[in-house]
Structure formats: C-alpha cells, structure tokens
Amino acid sequence: MTQLTLPPKVTDRAFARLAEINSETGEAQALRVAVEGGGCSGFQYDIRLDAPAKDDLVIERDGLKVVVDSVSLPFLANAVIDFTEELIGARFTIDNPNASSSCGCGTSFSM
Questions:
Q1: Which single residue of 2, 32, 76, 111 could bond 8 by disulfide (Cβ 3.0 to 4.6 Å)?
Q2: Rg (Cα) of the chain, in Å, rounded?
Q3: CA–CA separation, 92 vs 106, rounded Å?
C-alpha cells in the first residue's frame, strides 16, 4: 500500500502567528518554508518572510499565505508547519514524516 503524498499542512497557530507578524510589521508578507542542503544532518529548513514566486505552492487562509518552492515541495510532503512557544523560545516548527533523523536544533534533518 502506497502512502498518499499531500502538500504540507499549516496549523491554525502558524497562521495566527503569521497574522501577528504582518500586523506588527504593517506588511502582508508570505511565510516561505524551504529546504536547503546543509546543516548538521544534511538538509536544513529556511523559514522567512518573502513574496510568493511564480512556481510556488501557495497555501492560503484568510488572505495569509504560506509558500513552498517546487524544489522543496517533495521534501515537505505530508509535513505539518506549526508555531510553538516553549521556554527556549517561540518559533515556527516542521513535523516532517519524511525525515529519518533530525538535529537537536530542530532546523536540520536527514532523509
């Protein structure tokens, strides 16, 4: 049985934090989630505010946009993009079922 490949899911908390950031900055930026080579485990996430590009997958809710480029998309299939607040700080996180291992920093992983 093959697993269905779906685009990443964005939680309500992640969209809510993006709305707060856009409200604070006065800009309507998209949250870009990308995967790049590097990091201590082979790949690393790059999460930043950016404008959507032509070939991006756009996940939109209430005018808020989370974008993933076409190269990063296969690495983020079935992943969950969330926002967490912990004692060590608040940050966007990615629960990625494709990662075979990850680093303690939470931004680096291997497949």
A1: 76
A2: 14
A3: 10
Domain architecture of the chain: domains with CATH = 9-100 (2.60.300.12)
The size of the chain, in residues, is 111
Tokens representing residue 100 in the block: 């075979």
Q: Under 8 Å CB-to-CB from 90, ≥6 apart: which residues?
A: 17, 83, 84
Question: Strand 80-86 vs strand 89-95: parallel, antiparallel, or unpaired?
Answer: antiparallel
Distance, C-alpha 107 to centroid of its chain: 10
Q: Would the pTM of this model clear 0.90, i.e. be above it?
A: no
**Nearest to residue 70, comparing CAs of 110, 33, 109, 28?**
33
Look up tokens 């075979």; give the residue. Answer: 100
Tokens of 74: 């296969």
